[in-house]
Amino acid sequence: MDLAFSSATDLATMIAERKISAVEALDAHLAQIDRHNEAVNAVVILDREGARGGAEKADAALARGDTPGPLHGVPFTLKDAHETAGMKTTVGFPPFANYVPQSDSPVVARLKAAGAVLVGKTNVAAMLGDWQSDNPLFGRTSNPWDLSRTAGGSSGGAAAAVATGMTPFEVGTDMQDSIRLPAAFCGVYGLKPTEHRISLAGAFPDPGGAPRSVRLMSCVGPLARNPEDLALIYRIIAGPDGTDTDLAPVPIDPTSKLQLNSLRIAFASTFPGFPIAAEISAAVERLAAGLASAGASIGEARLPKLDLHDDLAEGGRLIGMMLEAAQPEQPEQPTPVSRWFAALARRDRSILAWERFFETCDALLCPVAMTTAFAHCKPGTTLKVNGKDESYWMLPAYGAVFNYSGHPAVAIPCGQDSNGVPVGLQLVGRHWSEARLLGIAAAIAPLAGGFRRPPGY
Q: Most buried residue among 239, 332, 353, 377 by CB atoms closer than 10 A?
């Protein structure tokens, strides 16, 4: 039995049934970290002693006959963005190098309450501000499929840790494709939920108690090696928490087992004017053809009549306005409040256009990013796509469209390209449809290929 690559669901069941101990599960993952982390640099903060104490307490609780939680004794790591009591939260930013929060974020508290045992933190882009995970404190994370390439960002350490068996699941953050892009680059699954579905409180270090700067477009969501684990973690961390007042009290539906012949899937191998690697667009079309052969209702998407380039630019402007509003000192010429409301009104039009689109299908199948994992480079470096120079800043465009609109999306692995690195696609659905999207991802997994262990791990 390979515990390091067992699912969170299976680990929880085996621990609860006392087929293995929580200490054994922890030791298997620590061994994987010891064996592979030096090369990959995914786990950057490690609490062996605390994790062992937590695993021993979990085993003692079962010995007493206590009722286990849904993650009882399951080890896990967290993106180095979530506030964790007694453990550093740095976001790879030197001024936060020694910041140790006094309390857990609501998401962390829910995972611990479910019985999970925190082992450490994973690497990020500095201040979560890039699509490569590299920072002055911990250096860069490499892709386990090819160490010369990036694992993506800003949740790159999270995706690499899941892919290499260092952790059964992770929880990342996603403001511009930051869960889905690294999940695609490393060949794992990642869920960006509907905006305001999972608490953002404590999802970024807040040592001074300053106003929360990010209230739109950013989401917290899980990464795992199968859709079932995504669903398990999602159900635990989703929903109002008494802290983040933006959260909507929308029921968390159970994930149903779906049959392919019951699904209506639209597909788009590219978006108008967006660059895309030929092997990714071919993967979209190949999977769409396979779904059609399996009985699903498949059609080429008639995308909303939106200027998606302008949507991306507007999303960037909204982010800039949020960050400006949270600064302790305002600029000499602050953005007028009227511009903020005009930006929200424009965004509403895009949201509604996508909602109308999803009245005609259960999900949209499309790319996650314009290319697969590329060689480590300086941010902003021109990237080659189909032999042509393309802007680095268009890298996450396919994902960022749905941060702007707030729609849920699941990154799914879909084989490898000719360079031997993973191809990832995404399934996007209407607002609040996470449960159905996860059911669709599970139904599609056998055709898409699912998670594959990187060579050598």
A: 239
